[in-house]
Design a protein that fits this description.
alpha/beta, 10 helices, binds manganese (II) ion
Length: about 290
């Protein structure tokens, strides 16, 4: 069924409110309860089969103590001949899922979200992914595209930055680079509401958190110590085989292709990095008809 602009705006507004009211959220961090399950994912980038598998396999309705973490859903490969790209639909499906399961679905703010808010910054095959995204909205909501874009911006700004579990797991889209770890403004995780200064390009804490790459084992260790975490799981960096380790405290996972993985975990069990890697589940191995 095609959705009207009013209907889409209402969904994103309700999901935005659910993000703000998330019963486990304090400031910009979601603190999951003990003895629950959490399925961490990597970037999805409008991979529709993986998203469908994830939601179907998670059976959130039948598993009230199971949480699903979603991030970097937008900017994928579904584009029309006019360059209009379609990933607002996946973002809306995720927003609807948050409305249906407000205490079980949690988002992480990612750099493609920030680029979309700023309306610039990421090119793919010579085209701006943000312009392509807006073009899709313009095509699907003629005359209402600015209102839909605005509600999407507000929804994206409502996403938390990190998730913690009682067993010392920390999830965020990425972490700051080594040279930023010391001076990083860690108060960003507690402050609310954040201001535009917190989202500024390059210099802001949000930007540094979600754009960081090429960190070393020492950088990972320093960041984990600063936030009081034992193990970090992030996305952000593409992984052909699904995941990679950085030292013995960080796992980077990718959910945007069929060799991609998700990570079903307990919020209380004591894990090592090898335990995490062992739990990485390939999307290609998820057979919904079985
Ligand atoms: Mn990213």
């Amino acid at each position: 069924m095609e959705r009207t602009a009013d209907d889409v705006i209402e969904s994103f507004e309700s999901a935005k409110e659910e993000n703000a009211l998330d019963c486990y959220r304090t400031g910009q961090v979601v603190n999951l309860p003990a003895d629950h399950e959490v399925w961490m994912t990597g970037d999805i980038h409008d991979h529709r089969t993986n998203f469908r598998k994830l939601v179907a396999a998670a059976k959130l309705g039948e598993n009230p103590n199971r949480h699903l973490v979603l991030h970097e859903l937008i900017h994928g490969d579904h584009s029309g001949p006019d360059g209009a790209e379609d990933s607002w639909r996946m973002l809306m499906q995720a927003a609807d899922l948050k409305i249906d399961f407000p205490s079980q679905v949690h988002f992480l703010f990612a750099n493609h979200d920030l680029a979309q808010i700023h309306g610039e910054g990421i090119m793919k095959s010579g085209l701006s992914v943000c312009e392509a995204f807006n073009k899709g909205i313009k095509r699907d909501f003629p005359g209402h595209d600015m209102a839909v874009q605005l509600t999407i911006t507000e929804f994206l700004l409502s996403l938390p930055l990190a998730i913690r579990c009682p067993n010392g797991l920390w999830f965020s889209h990425s972490i700051p680079t080594d040279d930023q770890v010391e001076k990083f403004d860690y108060s960003v995780f507690e402050r609310t509401p954040l201001t535009s200064a917190d989202y500024k390009k390059r210099v802001s804490p949000v930007y540094q958190l979600i754009w960081g790459r090429k960190y070393t084992e020492a950088g990972v260790k320093a960041f984990a110590e600063k936030v009081g975490a034992k193990l970090l799981v992030t996305g952000h960096q593409a992984q052909e085989t699904g995941w990679t380790m950085v030292g013995d405290q960080m796992l980077i996972i990718d959910s945007s292709h069929n060799q991609g993985v998700f990570l079903p975990l307990s919020t209380s069990q004591d894990y090592t990095i090898d335990d995490l890697a062992e739990r990485a589940t390939k999307f290609v191995a998820v057979d919904l008809d079985a």
